[in-house]
Write a structure and sequence with these properties.
The complex is a heterodimer. Chain A is mainly beta. Chain A has strands spanning 3-5, 10-14, 19-21, 24-26, 33-39, 46-52, 59-61, 64-69, 74-79, 88-95, 106-107, 111-116. In chain A, strands 2, 5, 6, 10, 11 and 12 form a six-stranded mixed β-sheet that branches. A four-stranded antiparallel β-sheet of chain A has the order 3-9-8-7, with no helix packed on it. In chain A, strands 1-4 form a two-stranded antiparallel ribbon. The relative contact order of chain B is 0.33. The model of chain B has no long low-confidence stretch (mean pLDDT 91). Classes of the chains: A mainly beta, B mainly beta. The A-B interface holds A 33, 35, 37, 42-47, 50, 52, 91, 95, 97-98, 100-105, 107-110, 112 and B 2, 31-32, 34, 41-44, 46, 49, 51, 57, 91, 93, 95, 97, 99, 102-111, 113.
Chain lengths: 117, 117
């Protein structure tokens, strides 16, 4: 069975501070995908990143960076120089490798991030 | 690319009526779409997997006669909440997987807020 744990339920930081959102996962698959999605107050889920399990390179995209460590089954997400627009609920998710296209996503419970102006 | 739309975005209905929600992939074809339900401040709960041209696969505990799913084409899936009751009030989100590009990634629609009076 697959499981995703986001232990931080809510985080508040002052604008311009850096913040890291934790994600720990469990799976028996040797190959899998990890995702981060952002859900702003409007409700839609915005895709941020997909990471293959065989690619442990960290990734940076602007103020966002992701640290994937297979040894600790973690896929943490860092926002540097946070902005008010970053306020949202962030979900980490896990799926088996693509096969027939019907692979399910297992979501964590989400971390509500509030950036204080 | 990879845009998913949902209609309506918000609906209020009387108890006992049926409500249809449409999910469309606008710029790609999706043989598989997914329907989720989200309660306030909770994570997403997968309801069913919608496969084009075949019956949907429902998750345990989801009543297939209450939540009718039709995936009539490669760009359209519909969810009909039949004989809606107040406990069906929720945020319903669909997602679609682009098989040609970003094959392992689900792209989400903006969601539909259903309120049953």
């Amino acid at each position: 069975a697959q499981k995703v744990t986001q232990a931080q339920t809510e985080i508040s930081v002052v604008e311009k501070e850096d913040v890291t959102l934790d994600c720990v996962y469990e799976t028996r698959d040797t190959t899998y995908y990890l995702f981060w999605y952002k859900q702003p107050p409007s409700g839609e889920l915005v895709f941020l990143i997909r990471r293959n399990s065989f690619d442990e390179q960290n990734e940076i995209s602007g103020r966002y960076s992701w640290n994937f460590q297979k040894s600790t089954s973690s896929f943490n997400f860092t926002i540097t120089a946070s902005q008010v627009v970053d306020s949202a609920v962030y979900f980490c998710a896990l799926s088996p490798p693509p096969n027939f296209g019907n692979e399910k996503l297992t979501f964590g419970t989400g971390t509500r991030l509030t950036i204080i102006p | 690319g990879a845009v998913v739309s949902q209609h309506p975005s918000r609906v209020i209905c009387k108890s006992g009526t049926s409500v249809k929600i449409e999910c469309r992939s606008l710029d790609f074809q999706a043989t598989t779409m997914f329907w989720y339900r989200q309660f306030p401040k909770k994570s997403l709960m997968l309801m069913a997997t919608s496969n084009e041209g075949s019956k949907a696969t429902y998750e345990q505990g989801v009543e297939k006669d209450k939540f009718l799913i039709n995936h009539a084409s490669l760009t359209l899936s519909t969810l009909t909440v039949t004989s809606a009751h107040p406990e069906d009030s929720s945020f319903y989100i669909c997602s679609a997987r682009d098989l040609l590009a970003g094959r392992g990634t689900q792209y989400f629609g903006p969601g539909t807020r259903l309120l049953v009076l």
